[in-house]
Amino acid sequence: MATIVKHAAPLRPSRSSTTVRRVDRTDHPEDSVVSIAGVPVGGRRFTVIAGPCAVESLAQVADTAEAVRRYGGHLLRGGAFKPRSSPYSFQGHGLDGLRLLRQASDQTGLPIVTEVLESAEIPAMLPLVDAFQVGARNMQNGPLLRALGRQEKPVLLKRGPSATVEELLLAAEFILNGGNAAVILCERGIRTFEPSTRYTMDLNAVAVLKRETHLPVIVDPSHGTGRSELVLPLARAAIGAGADGLIVEVHPRPAEALSDGRQSLTPEGFGRMMTGIAPFVAAAGRTL
Length: 288
Ligand code: PEP
Ligand code: MN
Known about the structure:
By secondary structure, the chain is an alpha/beta fold. The protein has helices at 58-70, 94-108, 122-125, 142-149, 165-177, 203-212, 221-225, 231-241, 267-283; strands at residues 3-5, 32-36, 39-41, 47-51, 75-77, 112-115, 131-134, 155-158, 183-187, 217-219, 245-249. An eight-stranded parallel beta barrel has the order 4-5-6-7-8-9-10-11, surrounded by five helices.
């Protein structure tokens, strides 16, 4: 039976290494369902989060949001505070970008998931977001994880490209231990020796996580492959591995995107992905 979780039980005192952790299935055998402004992640539903890598303009994010809604996506993504590999790349529009994302959300009714880079930004972001994303680069940022544990909005925690599954679980434990049990885990590809894709999708991790933890697990085939034409096959594979949902990047004109255009689906491509995953979602005994 699925349960809606929002807050963890009161904090436990110190634990030994043999203590069962809050993330473990041992004490909590049933799957948790995390609600993002009423949209469930986990349980029988297969949840699709989609939108641009970065919020660039109102037209760009509003057009994308409209397409995400039209083709059956459930939640809108979009980065306003962008963690970039280069200091010379577009760093995002910050709070102004978040306000544009909120407008697109209000117009479409799709709740938003957006990345927070540092704890100091949480208070200003709180009234505008439905769920916080912790990016791969910040997975082990203890102060940020602790701060997110002290507030009530759900957290989408992405795996660091060099982090083990155990380290991802321990990162989630920081948030749960602070009192916020609404955590969703995300496999987004890891660094390996293989250069044909941007990262290597570790779908083993999905199968392992589904055994070890009650938290919902989603997959990001956009960052995981770095190639839009590989998003559908890896999305299908993720469903087979037991994922509870997907997060994918969509842009009205990927060639003009200020970030991650190569891996972004067009609105029509997103529509084809939704049609293309439907039989796989059904075969997994879930509903879109
Ligand atoms: C993103 O979602 O746009 C992003 C920066 O992802 P990651 O943290 O997985 O690199
Ligand atoms: Mn991106």
